[in-house]
Amino acid sequence: MSENYLLSVKQLHISFGQQIIINQLDMGLQKGEIGCLLGASGCGKTTLLRVIAGFEKTQQGSVQLGGTLLNAGNHFVEPEKRGIGMVFQDFALFPHLTIEKNVAFGLDDFNAKDKQQRIREMLNLVGLANMRNRYPHQLSGGQQQRVALARALAPQPKLLLLDEPFSSLDVELREQLAIDLREILKKQHITALMVTHDQQEAFAVADQVGLMHQGEIVQWSSPYDLYHRPKTDYVAGFIGKGTIVPGIMKSQHRIKTALGIIHSTEENVPSYCTQEGCAVNLLIRPDDVIHDDDSETQLEIIGKVFRGSEFFYTLKVDEHHELLCSAPSHHNHELHSFIGIRLDVEHLIVLGTPEKLN
Asked: How much is the pTM?
């Protein structure tokens, strides 16, 4: 692991009885980088965040921040001495304090002049300068989230942790606040680690996303690579939507499928699956399937969902396989009718195991 990491987690292991929560996990964040732990409930992401914050102790492994050892064996630095800011799921604002006093809560080490200046800076940063004298109950959920962020950033932490920060907000507000959060963190050059189960939040906020499964980070990549270059069947099945089409390698760059010959590049195919005759699985995303009435490939519509600007069609390939197709909503076809499709697989995902995606 790089010595340039601001946050470094090495060989972390936590179990409760026979149940393994975190399994020999390594991860790191560079200064100014925004990371996100993504995964289903029970995968260990919140436990990992709590260990970094100091709310839980490690059984094995270590946590370092800025070269300072926080957790290792019997060595343990208390949460309040770690230089870490935290934004909780429920914001945890003090209802009896004004917005200004909530932000001031962690600034006891500042003199009066510097404290007032820091409060002004933070409220300006989150766009709430004109609400400094209001109380939390007088603010919307999105505004309360901004106050919680301002309070966490005010003491100038080395690292900011965010535990499902948008989970209590409605969908449209969450999307906008995720974009705003990234802009604020980047403007302040803040190193941050967020936990979420929402892929769109992770993609909107993070530079690097770690997909967790059964206490392990199964892939740590940019959002783009996580979507277009999944390393395992589990990653491919969890991220985005898609369906599996089996194929047989005809040559290093040609794969025979029920949809015809699909071309690949060498880097798309696992090294152990390049030989002729090797069975592979192809993950086909809905945006890889283009509706084309003139195509010779005609498939039956067996599922249809209207999404305003588009229809989301499920198409029958054969008795065992389907395709998903996203088409503009003016292409309104009836169930069990046939439509023409062609593949435009710019980022072909080839998986070398026969396991079916979840």
From this structure: 0.86
